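Dear support,

I submitted the protein below through the web form. The confirmation email said the job was done, but the results page showed an empty box. After a refresh the structure appeared. I'm attaching both so you can tell me whether what I see now is the final result or a partial one.
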Amino acid sequence: MAVQINPSILSADFARLADEAKAVEGADWLHVDVMDNHFVPNLTLGVPVVESLARATDTPLDCHLMIEAPDRWAPQYVEAGAGSVTFHVEAATAPVRLAREIRAKGARASMALRPATPIEPYEDLLPELDMLLIMTVEPGFGGQAFLDIMLPKIRRTRELISKHGLDLWLQVDGGVSAETIERCADAGADVFVAGSAVYGASDPAEAVRALRTQAESTTAKASWACDH
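What the results page shows now:
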């Protein structure tokens, strides 16, 4: 199972987004946090910025929609150039229909869970998804401390993915750094969003490489990966 590192531009310089994207060209995806000041108490960017960023970089865009009414808005982010679109299950009216629409438009469909949202009620939805995002902080702001209490939830989610034999990526977002990425990888995550740990480093590209090395080393020894 391939490890993927997705730097979050929430921690980048918004006045230099094209340059900041180039600074992490070795990354697998560029994570774009869309916040509407309703679902979360912060306001970031929207469709026009995603369109511009998609033209400015060859790194595919992983758009995480922390917004109300994703059923209405998510398809527009596919049209804007996103290669993966994540909606929050807490905000979606019809998550299966939305995931199918995102896929039909040509992007990977992903569903996110806030820390207090359990995975078990959504077990039957997993085959409709390409990725599941477990938030390891409360969504809304970058630079928060990692919530260790999410590790059992990551493990349970990995067990459900294995139980159903799914080719489903398991992403973690929030407080991912050199200090926490190995715990996430050992628990079952294979896609890692890192903001401050990448863009706060003196060499963001090297930070991506170092995080990848840590995660790959841990994954190689993890029981879930050996069983896969």
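Response: this is the final, complete result; the empty box was a page-load delay. The radius of gyration is 16 Å.
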